[in-house]
Write a structure and sequence with these properties.
The protein folds into 2 domains: 206 residues, P-loop containing nucleotide triphosphate hydrolases (Rossmann fold); 177 residues, P-loop containing nucleotide triphosphate hydrolases (Rossmann fold). Helices cover 37% and strands 15% of the residues. It contains 15 helices and 14 strands. The protein has a 7-stranded parallel sheet with strand order 3-4-2-5-6-1-7, with helices on both faces. Helix 2 runs parallel beside helix 3, helix 6 crosses helix 8 and helix 13 crosses helix 14. The longest helix has 15 residues.
Length: 416
Amino acid sequence: MPTYFTDFDFSDTLLDAIHYMNFKEATEIQEKAIPHILEGKDLIGCAQTGTGKTAAFVLPTLQLLCDEDNSGVQVLILCPTRELAVQIDRQVQGLAYFTNHNCHSVYGGRDGVDWASEERALKGGADIIIATPGRLLAHIDRGYCKFSGVRHLILDEADRMLDIGFFDDIVKIIGQLPKKRQSLMFSATMADKIRKLANQILNNPLEVSVAVSKPAEGVTQEVYMAHEDQKNRMVKHLLKDKDLFQAILIFCSTKKKVEQLSRQLKRSNYNAEGISSDYAQKEREETLAGFRSGRTRILVATDVMSRGIDIKGIDLVINYDVPTDAEDYVHRIGRTARAKSKGMAITFICQEDMYRFVRIEELIERKLDKKHPPEHIGNGPEWDASAKKSRYSSGGRGGRPQSGGGKGGSHRGNRR
């Protein structure tokens, strides 16, 4: 039996907002997490991208705010990137529209006017603060942040924050908060470092877990064996028969590759833009807005985007490079087939990245068919399921096999 938002103990005001946001049936993480959060308990939520976890903590927290009669900063939400801060801010504003509560986002790359508005919010001008740790610490060091009224702490994408190196920053920020509070932690993975942080900041937390590190069922996954110098031609070849795909997201492993690929696509008259941390914040926001509105068809990005945007209707995700961490594969392809829709994900594997894709297949518990590029592009490297990192690490990224190092011949009859 499905669970509907009307089944939860939400006020009529919040239910009105839920209705206008077109939320009806709760997702699994919402169904599991919301009742515990409404009871005021600490919680660890493990859920991947696209499962509805933002609403899973925003909705019950808003309800608790409605039940409390306080003012000033009452909720602090920490997240790893500017893009995710903006995404959470939009959802909070939508769901809080009919309530008396307001929110403000705090993140880097903005001008002096934005800093002044953040300062006012942190002095008590907003009920809910959504912040990246570095920017928030810069304000805290000025000595004017008023956090004595914070009753709810939420860490979103906690694993990503720790990957970036925010552990000490998070601990320092939490040291500024009242000890008596509700603390929630949401993460896509539950590695040892996450449990270490949870033990430090949560009080007897409940744990709910949903679809940990498994791709959405609606994603069609394809894999091509491709040498590094074949990848650009493979992208253009694959785009030729995708005219009906209106939103395409391509992930590259480096900022340099983002710049090079987006430039080449533009030269080939594709409606494409690149985005990475090298771009100014205003450029990034304008690029995202163009992609979200449909003005830009193809977005080439680094992994800063894999968990940082909430854009519906992405038709195709291309992994130009195999991600370093197996879990990141799930986050990347999780940008498509969201909310039970359909989508496609295509991954290129060069010889150096075979060992990484072996780990991905182990994680998703599925062997994917390995295809070769078309004849006019040439054969890619031979798939080797026993590949290890050391085997190719000395040859430089993306180089072709040395003489005698490959099996030779066509790979077409040896697919898995």
